[in-house]
Fold each of these.
Amino acid sequence: MIKIKGLLSTFMAILMTLVSYGQNLVSPKEIDVIYVSHTVFTSAYQEYKIDLKNRKLWEYSSDWREEYTPRDESAENEGFNFAHVLEDGKIEIFQRKAKWYGFASWRDLYQQLSFFFVTLDGEQWDITIVFSDGTERKMVGYNAWPLTWNQMNAAFEELTGERILLLKSDYY
C-alpha cells in the first residue's frame, strides 16, 4: 500500500510538472495583436496584422519579383487591407495553443549559421506581439525557425484560414 501511494505521488508530481511546463513557457499576459512579415531578399512580400482584440485579420502583399512597394504605416489601417473577421471561439483556442507552444517565449533571434558566416539571403521573417498591457515583443529569423513553428503555423491557419507562418519547405 505504501509503495502504491509513493508511485501515485511520483506520477502526480511528474504530471503536474509536465502540465506546468507548457503553461509557464509564456508570459501570463494576453495577446492583443500579432504582426507577421515574410521577406525574400530584403523585400517584404507578405504582411499580416492579426488583431485578436478586435477580431480582425488584415493583410498586405507585394510581389517581390516585381518592383517592391513597402506598406505605408502612416496610412489608414497602417496600410493593411481588411481580410475578414475572426471567430471568438477560434481566438480562444488560438490563445491556448499559443501559450502551450510557447509562442510568446520564442527567442528574439533565429539564424542559420554556416561554418564561416551567417546566411542572410533567402527567407526572413519577423513577428511582433502586442500584449494587452501595451508591451511588445519582437522576434526575427533568418533561414531558421523555432521548434514549434509548424505547430503555430497550424494554429494560425485554424484561426485565420490563411497560411500566416510559411513553412521552410515553401522556399527550399
Amino acid sequence: MRLALTMVGLTLLSGLCLCLEARAGVVVFDTKSTADQMISSPLLGTFALDASGPQTFTIDTTNGTANVTSAFQGSDLPDPFVPGQYDTYNLYNIPAFTTGTVTTTPSGYNISFSLLFELDVMSGSLNGLSLVTMQYATFAASNVPTLPFPVGAAFSDPSGPAPVAVYLKNDFGPYPAGTPVGLSYDRVVTVVPEPSAITLLGIGVVALCCYGRRSRAKSGNRFRTPSRRRI
C-alpha cells in the first residue's frame, strides 16, 4: 500500500518537474510511439510496416525549435525469399539530418519535424540490409494541447501520402549502395501509453480500492452493536 502511494507520488513529482521545465521554455521528455508506413518496392513488393519504440523529444518554445531521436523496432518485414516469414528490423531517424520547429497557438502547439531515416534488417534472408532515405520526410501535428504530448498525438505529412524514395545504404548481393529500391509513403507516428504508466495506474487503482474497503470495514466495526452473551 505504502509502496503504491509512494510510486504515485513520484509520478506526480516528475510531472511537476516537467511543468517547471516547460515554464523555462525547454521541455525534454520520452514517449513510446508507433511508426506506421507503407513500402512499395519492385524487389520486395508492397506491404505495411508497423514498428514501435521509444522517442526522446526536446521542445524549445522560446527559440521555436524541436528535435527528436527515435529507436523503433519491428518484426513484420516480409522475407522475399522465404514465404510466410517475417524479418525483424530497427527503424530510426538520423540525428544529424533532423530539424524541427514549434509555434504556440491558442489551442496548443504546432510542431513539425523534417528528417531522413534508416531501416536496418536484423534477421532472415535480408539480415544486414540497410535502407535509407535521401529525401526529407515531414512529420507534423497541429494544435497539440500539451507538452509532453498526450497519448494519441499523431504526426504525419500534411501534404498526404508524400512518397519518398528509399535506397540501399550498403552493397547487398548484386546491388550496389545507392540503388533505389522503392518508396515509403503514408507515414504516421502516434504516441501510445507507456507500459510502465499503465502498470502504475493499475497499482494506484488497486491501492485506492483496498484503502476504501478497509475504511468502510473500520466504519462498520465502529458502529456494530456488541452481541449479548448468554448466561
